Amino acid sequence: MNKKIQAALISVFYKDGLEPVVKALHQLGITIYSTGGTQTFIEKSGIPVVPVEQLTTYPSILGGRVKTLHPSVFGGILGRRDDATHVQEMEQYKIPELDLVMVDLYPFEETLAATQSADFKGSAEEAEKQIIEKIDIGGPSMIRAAAKNFKDVLVVAAKKEYAPLARLLLEQNGTSTLEQRKAYAAKAFEIVGHYDVAIARYFNPGGAEYFLQSFQHPKAMRYGENPHQAGVFYGDTSNLFDQLNGKELSYNNLVDADAAIQLISEFNAPAADGQGTVFAIIKHTNVCGVSERNSVKEAWDAALAGDNESAFGGVLVCNGRIDKATAEAINEIFFEVLVAPAFDEDALAVLRSKKNRILLQLKNLPAAKQQFKSVLNGVLIQQTDEGNYAEWKETGGRNTTDAEHADLVFANIVCKHLKSNAIALVKNKQLVGKGCGQTSRIDALRHAVEKAGQFKFDLKGAVMASDAFFPFNDCVQLGHEAGITAFIQPGGSIRDNDSIEYCKQNNLAMVITGLRHFKH
Description:
The structure is a single chain. This protein has 520 residues and is α/β, with parallel strands linked by helices. The protein folds into three domains: 3-208, Methylglyoxal synthase-like domain (Rossmann fold, 3-Layer(aba) Sandwich); 237-362, Cytidine Deaminase, domain 2, CATH 3.40.140.20; 393-512, Cytidine Deaminase, domain 2 (3-Layer(aba) Sandwich). Helix content is 38%, strand content 20%. It is built from 19 helices and 25 strands. The longest helix has 26 residues, at 178-203.
Protein backbone atom coordinates (compact mmCIF):
# COMPACT_ATOMS: atom_id res chain seq x y z
CA MET A 1 0.00 0.00 0.00
CA ASN A 2 1.37 3.41 -1.01
CA LYS A 3 1.52 5.95 1.79
CA LYS A 4 1.78 9.69 1.42
CA ILE A 5 4.21 11.36 3.82
CA GLN A 6 2.59 14.31 5.57
CA ALA A 7 5.03 14.92 8.45
CA ALA A 8 8.63 13.97 9.11
CA LEU A 9 10.72 13.89 12.28
CA ILE A 10 14.45 14.46 11.69
CA SER A 11 17.07 14.23 14.42
CA VAL A 12 20.49 13.18 13.16
CA PHE A 13 24.09 13.36 14.32
CA TYR A 14 25.54 13.44 10.80
CA LYS A 15 24.35 16.45 8.80
CA ASP A 16 26.44 15.95 5.64
CA GLY A 17 24.11 14.94 2.81
CA LEU A 18 21.01 16.03 4.73
CA GLU A 19 20.27 19.27 2.82
CA PRO A 20 18.92 17.62 -0.38
CA VAL A 21 16.52 15.58 1.76
CA VAL A 22 15.04 18.53 3.66
CA LYS A 23 14.77 20.53 0.43
CA ALA A 24 12.86 17.66 -1.17
CA LEU A 25 10.57 17.42 1.86
CA HIS A 26 9.90 21.17 1.72
CA GLN A 27 9.27 21.04 -2.01
CA LEU A 28 6.69 18.31 -1.43
CA GLY A 29 4.93 20.32 1.28
CA ILE A 30 5.86 17.93 4.08
CA THR A 31 5.95 19.32 7.64
CA ILE A 32 9.35 18.85 9.30
CA TYR A 33 9.80 18.42 13.05
CA SER A 34 13.30 18.53 14.45
CA THR A 35 15.52 19.01 17.49
CA GLY A 36 18.75 20.70 18.59
CA GLY A 37 21.57 20.83 16.08
CA THR A 38 19.48 19.29 13.33
CA GLN A 39 16.85 21.96 13.75
CA THR A 40 19.52 24.67 13.55
CA PHE A 41 20.97 23.09 10.40
CA ILE A 42 17.56 23.00 8.70
CA GLU A 43 16.82 26.59 9.68
CA LYS A 44 20.16 27.72 8.21
CA SER A 45 19.17 25.97 4.98
CA GLY A 46 16.16 28.29 4.82
CA ILE A 47 13.66 25.48 5.32
CA PRO A 48 10.71 25.89 7.74
CA VAL A 49 10.96 23.53 10.71
CA VAL A 50 8.82 22.91 13.79
CA PRO A 51 10.75 22.42 17.06
CA VAL A 52 9.89 19.15 18.80
CA GLU A 53 9.39 21.23 21.96
CA GLN A 54 6.13 22.48 20.45
CA LEU A 55 4.87 18.89 20.56
CA THR A 56 6.23 17.90 23.94
CA THR A 57 5.87 21.34 25.65
CA TYR A 58 9.19 20.50 27.29
CA PRO A 59 12.60 21.90 26.40
CA SER A 60 15.62 19.70 25.85
CA ILE A 61 16.78 18.85 29.39
CA LEU A 62 19.61 17.12 31.24
CA GLY A 63 22.23 18.36 28.84
CA GLY A 64 20.35 17.00 25.83
CA ARG A 65 19.90 13.52 27.27
CA VAL A 66 16.12 13.96 27.15
CA LYS A 67 14.60 15.59 24.09
CA THR A 68 12.27 13.21 22.30
CA LEU A 69 11.32 10.72 25.03
CA HIS A 70 7.70 11.86 25.21
CA PRO A 71 4.23 10.44 24.31
CA SER A 72 3.67 13.21 21.75
CA VAL A 73 6.67 11.95 19.80
CA PHE A 74 6.31 8.21 20.28
CA GLY A 75 2.55 8.36 19.91
CA GLY A 76 3.04 10.01 16.52
CA ILE A 77 5.42 7.24 15.50
CA LEU A 78 3.65 4.21 16.97
CA GLY A 79 0.03 5.17 16.35
CA ARG A 80 -1.68 2.78 13.95
CA ARG A 81 -3.55 4.66 11.29
CA ASP A 82 -5.95 1.76 10.69
CA ASP A 83 -6.95 1.51 14.36
CA ALA A 84 -9.88 3.78 15.19
CA THR A 85 -8.96 3.87 18.88
CA HIS A 86 -5.41 4.95 18.08
CA VAL A 87 -6.64 7.64 15.72
CA GLN A 88 -9.17 8.92 18.27
CA GLU A 89 -6.55 9.08 21.03
CA MET A 90 -4.06 10.88 18.78
CA GLU A 91 -6.71 13.48 17.95
CA GLN A 92 -7.66 13.78 21.63
CA TYR A 93 -4.09 14.49 22.71
CA LYS A 94 -3.19 16.51 19.60
CA ILE A 95 -0.49 14.07 18.48
CA PRO A 96 0.47 14.48 14.81
CA GLU A 97 1.04 11.43 12.62
CA LEU A 98 4.79 11.16 11.93
CA ASP A 99 5.11 9.31 8.62
CA LEU A 100 8.88 9.62 8.17
CA VAL A 101 11.47 9.21 10.91
CA MET A 102 15.07 10.12 10.06
CA VAL A 103 17.28 9.32 13.02
CA ASP A 104 20.87 8.11 13.08
CA LEU A 105 22.86 7.09 16.15
CA TYR A 106 25.56 8.73 18.20
CA PRO A 107 29.01 7.60 17.00
CA PHE A 108 29.69 5.10 19.79
CA GLU A 109 32.17 2.88 17.92
CA GLU A 110 33.99 5.86 16.43
CA THR A 111 34.34 7.45 19.88
CA LEU A 112 35.53 4.16 21.35
CA ALA A 113 38.19 3.83 18.64
CA ALA A 114 39.30 7.45 19.09
CA THR A 115 39.70 7.14 22.86
CA GLN A 116 41.72 3.93 22.44
CA SER A 117 44.08 5.36 19.84
CA ALA A 118 47.62 6.53 20.55
CA ASP A 119 46.55 10.09 19.69
CA PHE A 120 44.11 10.30 22.61
CA LYS A 121 45.67 12.40 25.38
CA GLY A 122 42.93 12.23 28.00
CA SER A 123 42.73 10.09 31.11
CA ALA A 124 40.93 6.76 31.40
CA GLU A 125 38.14 8.55 33.26
CA GLU A 126 37.77 11.11 30.47
CA ALA A 127 37.77 8.35 27.86
CA GLU A 128 35.01 6.49 29.67
CA LYS A 129 32.98 9.68 30.05
CA GLN A 130 33.16 10.36 26.31
CA ILE A 131 32.26 6.77 25.46
CA ILE A 132 29.28 6.61 27.81
CA GLU A 133 27.86 9.89 26.48
CA LYS A 134 27.81 8.35 23.02
CA ILE A 135 25.39 5.65 24.12
CA ASP A 136 22.26 6.81 22.36
CA ILE A 137 18.91 6.31 24.10
CA GLY A 138 16.30 8.28 22.20
CA GLY A 139 17.74 7.40 18.79
CA PRO A 140 17.45 3.62 19.03
CA SER A 141 14.05 3.98 20.68
CA MET A 142 12.64 6.10 17.85
CA ILE A 143 14.22 3.87 15.20
CA ARG A 144 12.76 0.72 16.75
CA ALA A 145 9.36 2.35 17.15
CA ALA A 146 9.27 3.51 13.53
CA ALA A 147 10.53 0.16 12.25
CA LYS A 148 7.91 -1.67 14.29
CA ASN A 149 5.19 0.50 12.74
CA PHE A 150 6.52 0.08 9.18
CA LYS A 151 2.97 -0.30 7.85
CA ASP A 152 2.55 3.42 8.39
CA VAL A 153 6.02 4.87 8.91
CA LEU A 154 9.15 5.06 6.76
CA VAL A 155 12.32 4.92 8.85
CA VAL A 156 15.82 5.98 7.76
CA ALA A 157 18.54 5.11 10.27
CA ALA A 158 21.88 5.87 8.60
CA LYS A 159 23.44 8.71 6.64
CA LYS A 160 24.21 6.39 3.72
CA GLU A 161 20.43 6.30 3.12
CA TYR A 162 20.03 10.10 2.84
CA ALA A 163 20.69 10.25 -0.91
CA PRO A 164 18.48 7.24 -1.80
CA LEU A 165 15.70 8.74 0.31
CA ALA A 166 15.91 12.09 -1.51
CA ARG A 167 15.59 10.27 -4.85
CA LEU A 168 12.69 8.16 -3.59
CA LEU A 169 10.80 11.24 -2.35
CA LEU A 170 11.13 13.11 -5.63
CA GLU A 171 10.56 10.14 -7.93
CA GLN A 172 7.48 8.94 -6.01
CA ASN A 173 6.05 12.36 -5.15
CA GLY A 174 6.50 11.92 -1.40
CA THR A 175 5.02 8.44 -1.19
CA SER A 176 6.45 5.05 -0.24
CA THR A 177 5.29 1.50 -0.79
CA LEU A 178 4.73 -1.07 1.93
CA GLU A 179 7.61 -3.13 0.53
CA GLN A 180 9.93 -0.14 0.70
CA ARG A 181 8.94 0.68 4.27
CA LYS A 182 9.46 -2.92 5.32
CA ALA A 183 12.88 -3.02 3.65
CA TYR A 184 13.96 0.19 5.42
CA ALA A 185 12.64 -1.26 8.70
CA ALA A 186 14.78 -4.37 8.26
CA LYS A 187 17.87 -2.21 7.72
CA ALA A 188 16.97 -0.15 10.77
CA PHE A 189 16.75 -3.18 13.04
CA GLU A 190 20.14 -4.38 11.75
CA ILE A 191 21.68 -0.99 12.53
CA VAL A 192 20.24 -0.85 16.04
CA GLY A 193 21.20 -4.47 16.65
CA HIS A 194 24.80 -3.82 15.62
CA TYR A 195 24.88 -0.72 17.81
CA ASP A 196 23.55 -2.54 20.86
CA VAL A 197 26.02 -5.38 20.41
CA ALA A 198 28.93 -2.92 20.13
CA ILE A 199 27.90 -1.38 23.45
CA ALA A 200 27.47 -4.79 25.08
CA ARG A 201 30.89 -5.78 23.81
CA TYR A 202 32.39 -2.66 25.41
CA PHE A 203 30.96 -3.61 28.79
CA ASN A 204 31.77 -7.32 28.36
CA PRO A 205 34.72 -7.65 25.96
CA GLY A 206 34.68 -10.94 24.10
CA GLY A 207 31.35 -12.06 25.54
CA ALA A 208 28.56 -13.80 23.68
CA GLU A 209 27.64 -10.45 22.14
CA TYR A 210 30.87 -10.54 20.12
CA PHE A 211 29.79 -13.86 18.64
CA LEU A 212 26.39 -12.42 17.74
CA GLN A 213 27.94 -9.31 16.22
CA SER A 214 30.19 -11.40 14.03
CA PHE A 215 27.16 -12.70 12.14
CA GLN A 216 26.81 -9.28 10.55
CA HIS A 217 30.11 -9.73 8.67
CA PRO A 218 29.82 -12.89 6.55
CA LYS A 219 32.74 -13.65 4.24
CA ALA A 220 32.68 -16.52 1.79
CA MET A 221 35.67 -18.87 1.92
CA ARG A 222 37.15 -20.51 -1.16
CA TYR A 223 35.84 -23.70 0.43
CA GLY A 224 35.49 -25.26 3.87
CA GLU A 225 37.62 -27.88 5.56
CA ASN A 226 37.68 -29.84 2.30
CA PRO A 227 37.22 -28.64 -1.32
CA HIS A 228 33.76 -30.17 -1.64
CA GLN A 229 32.50 -28.25 1.42
CA ALA A 230 31.26 -24.67 1.19
CA GLY A 231 32.56 -22.37 3.92
CA VAL A 232 31.70 -18.91 5.28
CA PHE A 233 33.48 -16.90 7.99
CA TYR A 234 31.39 -14.66 10.22
CA GLY A 235 33.62 -12.27 12.08
CA ASP A 236 36.10 -9.43 11.93
CA THR A 237 39.84 -10.01 12.33
CA SER A 238 40.88 -6.42 11.58
CA ASN A 239 41.39 -5.56 15.25
CA LEU A 240 43.62 -8.63 15.76
CA PHE A 241 46.06 -8.48 12.85
CA ASP A 242 46.98 -6.86 9.55
CA GLN A 243 47.68 -9.10 6.56
CA LEU A 244 50.97 -8.02 4.97
CA ASN A 245 51.20 -10.61 2.21
CA GLY A 246 49.59 -13.62 0.64
CA LYS A 247 46.33 -15.05 -0.56
CA GLU A 248 43.05 -14.80 1.33
CA LEU A 249 42.89 -16.80 4.52
CA SER A 250 41.13 -20.12 4.01
CA TYR A 251 38.88 -21.99 6.41
CA ASN A 252 41.78 -24.16 7.59
CA ASN A 253 44.15 -21.17 7.76
CA LEU A 254 41.75 -19.45 10.13
CA VAL A 255 41.35 -22.52 12.30
CA ASP A 256 45.11 -23.01 12.60
CA ALA A 257 45.81 -19.29 13.01
CA ASP A 258 43.33 -19.23 15.88
CA ALA A 259 45.16 -22.14 17.55
CA ALA A 260 48.50 -20.41 17.00
CA ILE A 261 47.38 -17.07 18.44
CA GLN A 262 45.69 -18.77 21.40
CA LEU A 263 48.97 -20.52 22.18
CA ILE A 264 51.21 -17.47 21.83
CA SER A 265 48.86 -15.44 24.01
CA GLU A 266 50.02 -17.62 26.92
CA PHE A 267 53.46 -16.02 26.76
CA ASN A 268 54.60 -12.46 27.48
CA ALA A 269 56.50 -10.40 24.95
CA PRO A 270 60.26 -11.14 25.07
CA ALA A 271 62.54 -8.92 27.12
CA ALA A 272 64.93 -6.44 25.50
CA ASP A 273 67.73 -9.01 25.62
CA GLY A 274 65.54 -11.53 23.79
CA GLN A 275 64.78 -13.66 26.83
CA GLY A 276 61.30 -15.12 26.64
CA THR A 277 61.20 -15.35 22.83
CA VAL A 278 58.80 -18.14 21.91
CA PHE A 279 58.39 -19.66 18.46
CA ALA A 280 55.78 -22.31 17.69
CA ILE A 281 54.70 -24.40 14.73
CA ILE A 282 51.04 -25.45 14.52
CA LYS A 283 49.68 -28.26 12.38
CA HIS A 284 45.98 -29.11 12.33
CA THR A 285 45.58 -27.00 15.49
CA ASN A 286 48.18 -29.06 17.42
CA VAL A 287 51.60 -27.80 18.44
CA CYS A 288 54.24 -29.82 16.59
CA GLY A 289 57.21 -27.66 17.57
CA VAL A 290 57.75 -24.94 20.15
CA SER A 291 60.63 -23.51 22.13
CA GLU A 292 61.65 -20.54 24.25
CA ARG A 293 65.08 -19.03 23.64
CA ASN A 294 67.02 -15.76 23.90
CA SER A 295 66.54 -14.76 20.26
CA VAL A 296 63.99 -15.27 17.50
CA LYS A 297 66.43 -17.26 15.35
CA GLU A 298 67.36 -19.58 18.21
CA ALA A 299 63.71 -20.07 19.09
CA TRP A 300 62.89 -20.91 15.48
CA ASP A 301 65.75 -23.40 15.13
CA ALA A 302 64.75 -25.21 18.34
CA ALA A 303 61.05 -25.26 17.43
CA LEU A 304 61.78 -26.71 13.99
CA ALA A 305 64.13 -29.32 15.44
CA GLY A 306 61.27 -30.64 17.55
CA ASP A 307 59.58 -32.11 14.46
CA ASN A 308 60.85 -30.86 11.12
CA GLU A 309 58.60 -33.27 9.23
CA SER A 310 55.29 -32.08 10.66
CA ALA A 311 56.35 -28.45 10.16
CA PHE A 312 55.75 -28.80 6.41
CA GLY A 313 52.71 -26.72 5.47
CA GLY A 314 52.22 -25.51 9.03
CA VAL A 315 51.25 -22.23 10.64
CA LEU A 316 54.09 -20.42 12.42
CA VAL A 317 53.74 -17.99 15.30
CA CYS A 318 56.21 -15.96 17.34
CA ASN A 319 55.95 -13.38 20.12
CA GLY A 320 59.02 -11.44 18.88
CA ARG A 321 60.09 -9.34 15.88
CA ILE A 322 61.07 -11.36 12.82
CA ASP A 323 64.55 -10.35 11.62
CA LYS A 324 66.28 -11.12 8.34
CA ALA A 325 68.33 -14.05 9.65
CA THR A 326 65.18 -15.76 10.95
CA ALA A 327 63.29 -14.95 7.75
CA GLU A 328 66.01 -16.55 5.64
CA ALA A 329 65.90 -19.69 7.78
CA ILE A 330 62.10 -19.86 7.65
CA ASN A 331 62.17 -19.27 3.92
CA GLU A 332 63.81 -22.65 3.41
CA ILE A 333 60.64 -24.57 4.26
CA PHE A 334 57.08 -24.50 2.96
CA PHE A 335 54.58 -22.99 5.36
CA GLU A 336 51.12 -21.49 5.00
CA VAL A 337 50.97 -18.67 7.55
CA LEU A 338 53.39 -16.73 9.76
CA VAL A 339 52.04 -14.64 12.65
CA ALA A 340 54.26 -12.19 14.54
CA PRO A 341 53.87 -8.80 16.25
CA ALA A 342 56.54 -7.14 14.06
CA PHE A 343 58.74 -7.70 11.01
CA ASP A 344 61.96 -5.98 9.95
CA GLU A 345 61.71 -4.56 6.43
CA ASP A 346 64.55 -6.73 5.10
CA ALA A 347 62.82 -9.75 6.66
CA LEU A 348 59.60 -8.89 4.84
CA ALA A 349 61.52 -8.63 1.57
CA VAL A 350 62.68 -12.22 2.05
CA LEU A 351 59.33 -13.60 3.16
CA ARG A 352 57.38 -11.88 0.39
CA SER A 353 59.35 -13.83 -2.21
CA LYS A 354 56.42 -16.27 -2.21
CA LYS A 355 53.33 -14.32 -3.25
CA ASN A 356 50.82 -16.73 -1.70
CA ARG A 357 52.57 -16.94 1.66
CA ILE A 358 50.34 -15.37 4.31
CA LEU A 359 52.05 -12.94 6.69
CA LEU A 360 49.98 -11.61 9.59
CA GLN A 361 51.18 -8.80 11.84
CA LEU A 362 49.55 -9.33 15.21
CA LYS A 363 48.11 -6.12 16.71
CA ASN A 364 46.10 -7.40 19.65
CA LEU A 365 45.48 -10.68 21.38
CA PRO A 366 41.92 -12.05 21.42
CA ALA A 367 39.80 -10.55 24.17
CA ALA A 368 37.15 -13.27 24.03
CA LYS A 369 36.22 -14.80 27.37
CA GLN A 370 33.91 -17.36 25.82
CA GLN A 371 34.24 -20.08 23.19
CA PHE A 372 31.60 -21.41 20.82
CA LYS A 373 31.12 -24.75 19.11
CA SER A 374 28.25 -25.91 16.93
CA VAL A 375 26.77 -29.27 17.88
CA LEU A 376 23.63 -31.07 16.70
CA ASN A 377 20.99 -28.35 16.28
CA GLY A 378 22.60 -25.80 18.57
CA VAL A 379 25.67 -24.06 19.87
CA LEU A 380 27.74 -24.84 22.96
CA ILE A 381 29.18 -21.85 24.81
CA GLN A 382 31.87 -22.18 27.43
CA GLN A 383 34.23 -19.95 29.33
CA THR A 384 37.72 -19.73 27.82
CA ASP A 385 40.24 -22.11 29.42
CA GLU A 386 42.35 -19.52 31.20
CA GLY A 387 45.33 -20.14 33.44
CA ASN A 388 48.07 -22.71 33.64
CA TYR A 389 47.63 -24.26 37.09
CA ALA A 390 45.39 -23.63 40.09
CA GLU A 391 47.94 -24.88 42.60
CA TRP A 392 51.51 -26.12 42.63
CA LYS A 393 51.52 -29.14 44.88
CA GLU A 394 54.79 -31.07 45.06
CA THR A 395 53.76 -34.67 45.76
CA GLY A 396 56.65 -36.79 44.45
CA GLY A 397 59.74 -38.29 45.98
CA ARG A 398 61.48 -34.89 45.95
CA ASN A 399 60.82 -31.27 45.02
CA THR A 400 61.42 -30.08 41.49
CA THR A 401 64.73 -28.42 40.63
CA ASP A 402 64.68 -24.88 39.23
CA ALA A 403 65.24 -26.22 35.71
CA GLU A 404 62.49 -28.82 36.08
CA HIS A 405 60.13 -26.21 37.51
CA ALA A 406 60.63 -23.93 34.49
CA ASP A 407 60.22 -26.82 32.05
CA LEU A 408 57.08 -28.09 33.79
CA VAL A 409 55.43 -24.66 33.58
CA PHE A 410 56.31 -24.52 29.88
CA ALA A 411 55.22 -28.10 29.22
CA ASN A 412 51.87 -27.64 30.91
CA ILE A 413 51.07 -24.67 28.65
CA VAL A 414 52.04 -26.64 25.57
CA CYS A 415 50.00 -29.65 26.68
CA LYS A 416 47.00 -27.38 27.17
CA HIS A 417 47.10 -26.63 23.43
CA LEU A 418 47.25 -30.25 22.26
CA LYS A 419 44.16 -32.30 21.52
CA SER A 420 43.22 -34.79 24.23
CA ASN A 421 44.43 -37.25 25.24
CA ALA A 422 47.63 -35.22 25.33
CA ILE A 423 51.19 -35.64 26.57
CA ALA A 424 53.99 -33.09 26.14
CA LEU A 425 57.66 -33.88 26.74
CA VAL A 426 59.88 -30.85 27.28
CA LYS A 427 63.59 -30.35 27.89
CA ASN A 428 65.25 -26.96 28.24
CA LYS A 429 61.99 -25.24 27.19
CA GLN A 430 61.84 -27.13 23.93
CA LEU A 431 59.08 -29.54 22.92
CA VAL A 432 60.96 -32.78 22.27
CA GLY A 433 58.03 -35.17 22.02
CA LYS A 434 54.26 -35.06 22.02
CA GLY A 435 51.29 -37.35 21.74
CA CYS A 436 47.85 -35.93 21.03
CA GLY A 437 44.35 -36.96 20.02
CA GLN A 438 44.84 -40.50 21.31
CA THR A 439 42.08 -42.60 22.80
CA SER A 440 44.22 -43.60 25.79
CA ARG A 441 46.79 -41.67 27.79
CA ILE A 442 49.38 -44.45 27.61
CA ASP A 443 49.11 -44.41 23.80
CA ALA A 444 49.65 -40.64 23.81
CA LEU A 445 52.81 -41.17 25.87
CA ARG A 446 54.06 -43.98 23.66
CA HIS A 447 53.62 -41.73 20.65
CA ALA A 448 55.46 -38.87 22.41
CA VAL A 449 58.41 -41.11 23.30
CA GLU A 450 58.55 -42.46 19.75
CA LYS A 451 58.55 -38.92 18.34
CA ALA A 452 61.41 -37.94 20.63
CA GLY A 453 63.41 -40.97 19.49
CA GLN A 454 62.65 -40.25 15.83
CA PHE A 455 64.34 -36.86 16.12
CA LYS A 456 67.22 -38.15 18.28
CA PHE A 457 66.30 -36.39 21.51
CA ASP A 458 67.75 -37.71 24.74
CA LEU A 459 64.90 -37.75 27.25
CA LYS A 460 67.16 -38.08 30.25
CA GLY A 461 66.25 -35.16 32.51
CA ALA A 462 63.20 -34.19 30.44
CA VAL A 463 59.80 -33.47 32.01
CA MET A 464 56.30 -34.67 31.15
CA ALA A 465 52.96 -32.83 31.18
CA SER A 466 49.58 -34.55 30.98
CA ASP A 467 46.35 -32.68 30.22
CA ALA A 468 44.39 -34.90 32.65
CA PHE A 469 45.09 -37.20 35.54
CA PHE A 470 46.96 -40.52 35.35
CA PRO A 471 44.37 -43.27 35.97
CA PHE A 472 47.19 -45.75 36.61
CA ASN A 473 50.92 -45.53 37.27
CA ASP A 474 51.77 -46.97 33.84
CA CYS A 475 52.44 -43.52 32.32
CA VAL A 476 54.78 -42.54 35.12
CA GLN A 477 56.59 -45.86 34.87
CA LEU A 478 56.99 -45.66 31.08
CA GLY A 479 58.10 -42.04 31.32
CA HIS A 480 60.66 -42.93 33.98
CA GLU A 481 62.03 -45.75 31.81
CA ALA A 482 62.43 -43.23 28.96
CA GLY A 483 64.42 -40.84 31.18
CA ILE A 484 61.72 -38.46 32.46
CA THR A 485 62.53 -37.06 35.91
CA ALA A 486 59.54 -34.80 36.66
CA PHE A 487 55.81 -34.92 35.94
CA ILE A 488 52.95 -32.41 36.02
CA GLN A 489 49.28 -33.40 35.99
CA PRO A 490 45.99 -32.05 37.37
CA GLY A 491 45.31 -34.95 39.74
CA GLY A 492 41.84 -36.08 40.66
CA SER A 493 42.03 -39.80 39.96
CA ILE A 494 40.88 -42.19 42.66
CA ARG A 495 44.24 -43.87 42.03
CA ASP A 496 46.43 -40.76 42.17
CA ASN A 497 48.37 -42.37 44.96
CA ASP A 498 49.63 -45.15 42.66
CA SER A 499 51.54 -42.61 40.54
CA ILE A 500 52.62 -40.60 43.57
CA GLU A 501 54.01 -43.68 45.29
CA TYR A 502 55.93 -44.69 42.18
CA CYS A 503 57.55 -41.24 42.13
CA LYS A 504 58.43 -41.48 45.80
CA GLN A 505 59.98 -44.90 45.35
CA ASN A 506 62.09 -43.72 42.41
CA ASN A 507 63.05 -40.22 43.60
CA LEU A 508 61.00 -38.54 40.84
CA ALA A 509 59.31 -35.14 41.11
CA MET A 510 55.58 -34.80 40.60
CA VAL A 511 53.42 -31.68 40.63
CA ILE A 512 49.63 -31.72 40.92
CA THR A 513 47.96 -28.57 39.55
CA GLY A 514 44.26 -29.02 40.30
CA LEU A 515 43.43 -27.71 36.80
CA ARG A 516 42.51 -30.04 33.92
CA HIS A 517 43.05 -28.91 30.32
CA PHE A 518 40.98 -31.24 28.11
CA LYS A 519 40.80 -30.06 24.49
CA HIS A 520 38.36 -32.00 22.33
